[in-house]
Write a structure and sequence with these properties.
It is built from two helices and two strands; from the N terminus they run ααββ. The chain is mainly α and 80 residues long. It has one domain.
């Protein structure tokens, strides 16, 4: 279960960065006029990912980082 908590946010961040970087490269490649089309695709993908994460959250599959209880050990390292 802990692996899921680490993987889901990492996948989400990676996808958002990949999509946003593709928007930057598309702006260079296609010009400013076509950016609105790419922006709509980006917004749709982010909205879809947000819906998936919300479904996982409400089903109890993932827990937000703010809800995880953490404590520090003697070496000042954060533990769950």
């Amino acid at each position: 279960m802990n692996t899921i908590h680490k993987i889901i946010p990492a996948i989400f961040i990676t996808l958002v960065l990949a999509i946003s970087s593709s928007l930057v490269f598309s702006k260079i490649k296609y010009g400013v006029n076509d950016i609105e089309r790419f922006q709509k695709k980006f917004d749709a993908k982010v909205e879809y990912l947000d819906q998936v994460i919300n479904q996982l959250y409400h089903s109890g599959e993932i827990i937000p980082f703010s809800k995880l209880k953490r404590k520090r050990n003697n070496n000042n390292c954060i533990q769950k």
